[in-house]
Amino acid sequence: MTISGTILKEADILLKSLVTGVILIFVYDLLRIIRRLVPHGTVWIALEDFLFWAGSAITIFAMLYRENDGYLRGFSIGGVVVGMLLYSLLLSRFIVKGSVFVLEKVLYALLRPLVCMGRFLCRPVRACGGKCRKAGRILKKRLKKFLKTVRISLCKL
Predict the structure, then answer these.
(1) CB–CB of 56/24 below 8 Å?
(2) Rounded mean pLDDT of 34-44?
(3) Residues 3-11: contacts with CB within 8 Å, 24+ apart?
(4) Checking CA distances to 136, which of 39, 82, 120, 147 falls within 20 to 30 Å?
(5) pTM of the predicted model, to two decimals?
(6) How far apart (Å, rounded) are the C-alpha atoms in residues 83 and 72?
C-alpha cells in the first residue's frame, strides 16, 4: 500500500504548520519572560503585542506562500493553531516560570556585588553630605552679609 505524493505533501505542510505555531508561541513566551523581569507600561505592552502579531501574520503568510503556493488551506491554519495550543497547554507555563526564576537568581548573583559596592561608596558621600550642606549654609550667610555691606557702601557713595 503506497501513499500518494499529494497526501505526503499535505502531511508535510501540516507538520510545518504545527512547528510554526510552536515557534510563534515560544517567541511570545520570550516576550512574557522579559515583561516579568522588566516591568512595562500599557503602551509598551500594546506596541510589543502589535509587533508580535504583525510578525506572526507575516511568518504564517510566508510559510503558506513557500509551502502551499499561497493557497489558504484550513488544515494549515488549523495546524498553526493546534501547535500554539499544544505548546501553550503543555510547556509554556513551565518554561516561563522556570526561566524567570533562573534569570532572577542569575541577575541577583551578578548584580549583588555592584549593589554592595554602591552602598560602600555611598557611605562617605552621605557622611560628607551633611557637613557639606552645613558648610554651604554658612557660606551662603556670609555671602549675603558681604553683598549687603557692598550695597550699603555703594548707596553711601
Answers:
(1) yes
(2) 89
(3) 10/73, 10/75
(4) 120
(5) 0.68
(6) 17
